[in-house]
Design brief:
By secondary structure, this protein is mainly alpha-helical. 77% of the residues lie in helices and 0% in strands. The longest helix has 21 residues, at 32-52.
């Protein structure tokens, strides 16, 4: 777990998706949105860290 901030971001996205799916079952199909956004952000953070070295 080299990127603690990125791991926290993904964990929060999973919690947000689960909460949205629990509160509004008809909108469960939207749950992958926050997950995709968080995973993309972590990938961009990792790429930026490599470029800054």
């Amino acid at each position: 777990m080299a990127d603690v901030g990125g791991s926290g971001l993904v964990l929060l996205a999973v919690a947000t998706a689960a909460l949205c799916a629990w509160m509004l079952p008809p909108l469960t199909f939207l749950a992958p949105g926050p997950l995709a956004l968080a995973l993309t952000a972590v990938d961009v953070r990792r790429s930026a860290a490599v470029l800054l070295r």
